[in-house]
Amino acid sequence: MRDAITRIKIKPLSWTPYLPPVEVADATERQLAAMKVTPSAKKVSPYVRTLVHDPDSYVARTELFNAIMYAEGGLPRQDRELGALGASLVNGCMYCANVHARQHAKLSGPCTTSALYAGRRDALSTRDAAIMDFAEALTVTPPRADQSHIEALRSEGMDDGEIQDLIHSIAIFGWANRLMHPLGHSSDTPRACRKDFRRV
Amino acid sequence: MTAKDAINTALGVSSGDAMYQLRARRPAFVSGAEACRAAVLHPEDDLDLSPDLRHAVAHRAAAFGANAAFLAGYPAPDAPELHDLAKGGQPSDPGLAALARHTDMIAVTPARASEAHLQDLLSAGFSVSQIIALSELLAQVCFEMRVVHGLSLLRNNTNA
């Protein structure tokens, strides 16, 4: 069944803010510290420069995000990425969905993301289906996830520590999606242009 | 970690509980969530968004979680206009009214967000920095809502 789906390679998108980002030359000391700008590292993405308008929340959120997505041990990285993808699809954040679908494909091959992009939920492994179902139910407002979702994750062999990791990776995209999607738009950009965009 | 952090309080967890021990296995999640909450509710630089205004917005967003214990962690301010904003009313002040509409949209239907929504906030007098700070505040509440909901399921399931 899974082999019948065309394996796709997802192209990266670029993100452009609607609001003017902080220009490094105009940044306050706290903003520079938050962006970790140093004489040898002056390039900062438009995303970072947009959010660093509020350096307090930028620093706190970035530290939490990295802890959740890159913490050692516990839930495998690809499962955290799938939780992020499920949340991003519900929240309509195509940029985040693109980034985390590509991360997932990089970590565990293109089968899962190809099935999702083809609308073939039936072709997901039972583990991936349990993760997606939980991600969607936890992401809607109000959250509708229930014991049946936990049972499904448990029957895939997940322990409480791993489920805790999954809850956080889904929840942090309830945050990130509410920044990336409302504050900017994504577009399909040729590679050469993307490089230029980063240099801005 | 203390049993009194916002998430433990919303979950009704005390320090001897299995849920307390489970959360303690990820200390960076616990301290990070508390630091984020502090950064959006009472940051070092508040960008002229008062703690009461921040609490009003947070309460209004948190109410969409349909969880009384979680909502209790964001008490509504007493000042009548901000109380009305917190409690889901439609404030007469144009700035607060724009903020009320934005809060509801971001909390419930973020997929519908567009550039026009940001223009509404700019037109209502919010600065770019304030819009970013309000965006982070709203999103933090939505994050915490889901952590509490998810962990509450684990708690029920394991009698933690």
Structure characterization notes:
The complex is a heterodimer of chains A (200) and B (160). Chain A contains 10 helices and 2 strands, in the order βαααααααααβα. Chain A has helices at residues 29-35, 46-51, 55-70, 77-90, 94-108, 111-117, 126-139, 147-155, 160-183, 191-199, and strands spanning 14-17, 184-187. In chain A, strands 1-2 form a two-stranded antiparallel ribbon. The model of chain A is unreliable at 191-200 (pLDDT under 50). Chain B is mainly α and 160 residues long. Chain B has helices spanning 6-11, 18-24, 27-41, 51-62, 68-71, 80-86, 94-108, 115-123, 128-158. In chain B, α3 (27-41) packs antiparallel against α9 (128-158), α4 runs parallel beside α6 (80-86) and α4 (51-62) crosses α9. The mean pLDDT of chain B is 95. The chains are: A mainly alpha (200), B mainly alpha (160).
What is the gist of this entry?
Chain A has helices at 29-35, 46-51, 55-70, 77-90, 94-108, 111-117, 126-139, 147-155, 160-183, 191-199; strands at 14-17, 184-187. By secondary structure, chain A is mostly helical. The longest helix of chain A has 24 residues, at 160-183.
Distance between the termini of chain B: 17 Å
Spans of at least 5 consecutive residues with low confidence of chain B: none
Number of helices of chain A: 10
H and E string of chain B: HHHHHHHHH
The two chains with the largest interface, and their residue counts, are: A-B, 58 and 59 residues
Tell me about the biggest sheet of chain A?
2 strands, antiparallel
Distance between the termini of chain A: 46 Å
Oligomer: heterodimer
Overall shape of chain A: it is globular
> Strand tally of chain A, please?
2
Unreliable stretches of chain A? 191-200
Strand content of chain B: under 5%
Structural class of chain B: mainly alpha
- The residue fraction in helices of chain A comes out at 55-70%
Overall shape of chain B: it is elongated
